[in-house]
Amino acid sequence: MGGIKLALRHGMRFMEEKIMYTQQPNSDHCFICGRKNPHGLYMTFYDNGADEVISEYTVSEDYQGYPGIVHGGIVAAMLDEAVGRVAMIKDHHHFMMSVKLEVKYRHPVPTETLLKVNGRIVKLRGRLGKAVGEIRLPDGSLLAEAAMTLADIPAEIINGANLEALGWRVDP
Fold first, then answer.
1. DSSP code of 63?
2. What CA–CA distance (Å, rounded) separates 138 from 60?
């Protein structure tokens, strides 16, 4: 299958370093992954079935703070989504929310440049978890990193959610 770039843009599964990654579902109106949000980023995420979520994405100039630099809030939102999605690795219906997100901005994140975004499990136990994430350039340069504490979304919210109405599905 070509490289990771080709696979991320053209298939539901791809190989990277002999590890199989599977596409995670998206919703209709999420700002980061929503397919019907006219102002959203339309990101796609993949997981390795064990402990990591990844995405490759190019941020449009529409989301810049300073010219050519991605707004810090967009950087934080991308990391929040990637890191928060680690809870869904073994169960795409296990939803957790951010309790605490710490972002360290190491270097300006450029617009119109391919970025590698990932989230990794540190610990998921019971209703709480810890995870970390990064945004890197294709050459491996670290641009931003995050540490997150997550908690299960309260049962009364999840039990009332209609996932079909939310458009929660893997792209065809």
1. G
2. 17
Owning domain of residue 80: 4-163
Residue 157 lies in a domain: yes
pLDDT tens, residue by residue, 54-112: 999 999 999 999 999 999 999 999 999 999 999 999 998 899 999 999 999 999 999 99
Question: For position 96, which CATH number holds?
Answer: 3.10.129.10
User: Dihedrals φ, ψ of 5, to 5°?
Assistant: -60, -50
pTM of the model: 0.88
Cα–Cα distance measured from residue 99 to residue 7, given in angstroms and rounded to the nearest whole number: 33
CA separation for the pair 23, 56 (Å, rounded): 12
Cβ–Cβ < 8 Å for 132, 120: yes
